[in-house]
Specification:
The complex is a heterodimer of chains A (89) and B (364).
Chain A lengths: L4 E11 L2 E8 L2 E6 L11 E5 L2 E5 L2 H24 L1 H5 L1
Antiparallel strand pairs in A: 1-2, 1-4, 2-3, 4-5
Chain B lengths: L9 H14 L4 E7 H9 L2 H4 L4 E8 L1 H4 L2 H11 L4 E5 L1 H4 L8 H6 L3 E4 L3 H10 L4 E8 L4 H13 L5 E8 L1 H10 L7 E5 H7 L4 H8 L2 E5 L3 H16 L4 E2 L13 H10 E8 L3 E10 L8 H4 L15 H5 L23 H4 L4 H7 L7
Parallel strand pairs in B: 1-2, 1-7, 3-4, 3-5, 5-6, 7-8, 8-9
Antiparallel strand pairs in B: 6-11, 10-11
The chains are: A alpha+beta (89), B alpha/beta (364).
The structure holds iron/sulfur cluster.
Iron/sulfur cluster binds next to helix 16 and helix 17 of chain B.
Chain lengths: 89, 364
Amino acid sequence: MCLAIPGKVLSIEQENGLPMAVIDYAGARNRACLAYTPEAEIGSYVIVHAGFALQVLNEEEALASLTELTRLSALMEADAGRDDPERRS
Amino acid sequence: MKYLSEFRDPSLARSLLEQIARTVTRPWTIMEICGGQTHAIMRHGLDQLLPPEITLVHGPGCPVCVTPLETIDRALAIAARPEVIFTSFGDMLRVPGSSDDLFRVKSRGGDVRMVYSPLEAVKLARENPAHQVVFLAVGFETTAPGNAMAIKQAAAEGLANFSEITSHVLVPPAMEAILSSPQNRVQGFLAAGHVCAVMGTGQYVPIAEKHRVPIVPAGFEPVDILQAILQTVRMLESGEAGVVNAYGRVVRDAGNPAARAVMDEVFTVCDRKWRGIGTIPGSGLRIRDELAAFDAEKTFPVGDITTSESPDCISGLILQGLRKPHECPAFGASCTPLHPLGATMVSSEGACAAYFKYARRGTS
Ligand code: SF4
């Protein structure tokens, strides 16, 4: 029920007084209301639930957490490589 | 898909699992609140990949599951009326009432339509002035802003033929109820990321402090969930309580103030009955009295409704993390997704339905 996925804002227009956007979800397109994310622009990624954008995705945060995860993952692998013989025994 | 596939990366997931295994020294019971997360955990088998010290129990975060039978029976009675165009999200259509469901009402000639956004229901009202358009509004704080906007919009346009049956529920009072139970076994929470996207993280701070638990807002992809579990385990192992956000790309501490303002304008907090659990004080939202014209429960009197629940069902205990689905004698026998006996089997997001679908029978 609370599923919400990131999609990219392709266009924005006013409709009955509300800002409505066409959103691209990796090829599938649908419309969403941007009333709660007035800062969203064309090209922004928004998190959409039941026809409403609830947040603009923080791309810096997304990249920072991926970088951190990848760094830790590499460290773990190096580590695992080191104590490999022991771990297999 | 950008910002989706990266958080499904198996090598990142493996590394997180490894870090969790290295961090854990004792048994811990962690509850994921949200049914969407329960489903993701089962689908990706995360429960089976985690070290045996960690037990995941599944929370009450499936709005379809906790919608009281009375609400569904009332919705069915309203949907059957000839002047009504009845609208709802797809996952409510299949939910059985005491003796019927919306699909069957439709097959008998009722005008029942699935909508993807509550604004589509408003559009139907605009286009069908001779009909009453009723929208069945269930959900947590994630769904409430949209359902509030639909009423605000109908009011702004002066539509006299749009109304909602609201059965909104709120997460923090449910967590408080779980933690306050003398039988509680939950030691840490993954908070529902998209609820927090709207409400922010502040509401959870007093709960974390009062009950001395970690509460970690989490996303929905495997990497998100494992990252949140790692964070929770770290805090549990070091005896730390508090709120730490593990879904920073979506959850801001303040949530979405614009969405909350409209929720407040349209809804007010009320006590709410949760199916399988009972009434939790201050755990629901209802339409404000000033907007009673948009409240279908006020505009369509449907008389007294008496409901009956299966006596065999232990979904109330499951929703509070006290039992697991496979511990129910009816699970997979007299109770299946096609013939659900209780709350947690009716919706595909319910814990019983997830266990059934992914064949978990005591393995996790
Ligand atoms: S398996 Fe069915 S009867 Fe048992 S708790 Fe789950 S929903 Fe209730």
